[in-house]
Queue: 2 jobs
Job 1
Amino acid sequence: MDTSKQQAADWWSTDIIQMSPGEINFHGRPIQELIGNVSFVGMIWLMLKGELPKPGQEELFGAALMAGVDHGPQAPSIAIARMASSCGIGINNAMASAANVLGDVHGGAGEQCVALFNQILALQKDSELSLDQAADKVLGEFFDSGKKYVPGFGHRFHPVDPRSAPLLNLLRKAEDAGAVQAGYSAAAEAVEKTIAQRKGRHIPMNIDGATAAIYGALGFEPPLCRGLFVLSRSVGILAHSWEQMQRSERNKGPIPKGWLWTYTGKPVSQES
Ligand SMILES: CC(C)(COP(=O)(O)OP(=O)(O)OC[C@H]1O[C@@H](n2cnc3c(N)ncnc32)[C@H](O)[C@@H]1OP(=O)(O)O)[C@@H](O)C(=O)NCCC(=O)NCCS
């Protein structure tokens, strides 16, 4: 290959996909061998990790991705998908509008929570501390720094998040079977216990806490976990965008038409 052609080839060099006319390979695996043999979840794993999941990993990964797909139009991302669709824009625009609000505050707790679990597990490994002591030390520093809400715990709507226990059970089984890195379910429980001790009340693990424990155990880095949440929630965003597109409502606002917001500005001037 001449130098300029090589420069162009190297411009977007990637480990992920290789193509030539009539040939498509992902991480060295021909697409025709993947089709019918690898599930969508398995393909996500292959794309992100460069290999196929081992037994037990794909089921757990799929369960975490599945559990977070939707939380109804009370969630800003879903409401935005529906409002955007009612404005007559394309489905990709509605989906992008919704995905764009997923960040540190809405949808970001999972990423922050994996980082927290990693920090606790690393401290336990590098010290004489028990897991509970490591959790207490890390959370002590967390609260001392002025932060109030531990990511992955508490819920505005559910007294107990119905998604957490089944996900944690699956994680424990995978840990017992040696399919994933051990320690994350225990770290999640240690955090829950420590918050209860420090706050004097039980603040249960939510979906972001449970999926964070799973993604951590499966070896995903924290920033990637936010991407996984966006991937998962995109399923709900797609379904709601599509449902709303079937309706005749146009320019649907965030509250019913007859309701107005509270005005907090200057009163109407009486001066003529
Ligand atoms: C989701 C969330 C906003 C719900 O909060 P809420 O139930 O409305 O809780 P409130 O703000 O009314 O707080 C009630 C009390 O519980 C405490 N609390 C609630 N969630 C807490 C958490 N995650 N960590 C520590 N304390 C928490 C508050 O500090 C407050 O204590 P106080 O009475 O001593 O001040 C909150 O739990 C949170 O921010 N969690 C972390 C972010 C997260 O995981 N988001 C994803 C949700 S699926």
Job 2
Amino acid sequence: MPAGAIVYDPAYRDHETGDHIESKSRIEAIMERIREDVRARRVQILEPFRAALDQVGANHDVQYIASVRRLAEAGGGWLDLDTYCSPKSYEVSLLAVGGVICAVDAVMADVHNVMAIVRPPGHHAVWNKAMGFCIFNNVACAAKYAISSKEIERVLIVDWDVHHGNGTQASFYGDSRVLYMSTHQRPFYPGTGDFEEVGSGEGEGFTVNLPLPPGVNDDGFFYAYDRLFIPIAQQFDPELTFVSAGQDIHYADPIGGMLATSNAFRGLTERVKSVTPQGQVIACLEGGYDLQALADSTLTICGSLFDFPTQVDEGHVNSGISKHVSDRVERAIKVQSKYWEV
Ligand SMILES: [Zn+2]
């Protein structure tokens, strides 16, 4: 079995956000948990490079990119109501994009799956602005890089963060080469991601949204994947798969209202791996704000990606599929049956 890899650089801590909930403590907690685990700490660490301007510019307005650089050089400030830019945030944001691009290079060579532990997160960042703690859209930039530089024709992006990845959806809304699938709490920030948002033009049918009520448990998420996401993904037959891995669907998360346990992330990752069995899966950190839950959940993702056992005992059992969830899945199936056999 070829080896997998983790992308990480201590410089990701230099996006200084003070007492903001999206802080460097998040990746410190993850890396500490990985170092504690005898199997996880053996996984090779890939050192990221800084993305080139044109690699970020493929997904972002050059004026916006320059404005982030200027704000950082001027000592920092707020890019939007909840996204802070510190003096080093511009460089770190380039390193976050570069980290996921470096993961693309790795899985297209001989690395079997990658976990990219990067920050700032990316899935809310749109063409010309920062949103929701995100400066540049790491996954969207890397997907565009894979298409333009690696001759990849079918990219799957699965987004299980509790928030809808509006930025990623917008990047590929008219593009049939990228299938974007998201479960998210709704109504919730940022307000997008309704059932009927299915893509437009050539991209119609290549956006799959499953807005969910709060309180979805492990079984509910598995059910959504088994009934909706995995059948569609199998028909799409991706050559490369990204996961926008936001662990803020964990029951302990202070922002999200979902009930997933840490072990659920292993089950979700297994399902994603099943549609990309050759090892071209890149899980990229997005949200997740309870430090212990984030660290444990990211460990179980790594266990799945890199084939070592994990079992987190949280003393928290939840099972059964509520009608609120199955009704929403049925509604999404109805919408998507126009494009896919579901
Ligand atoms: Zn989130």
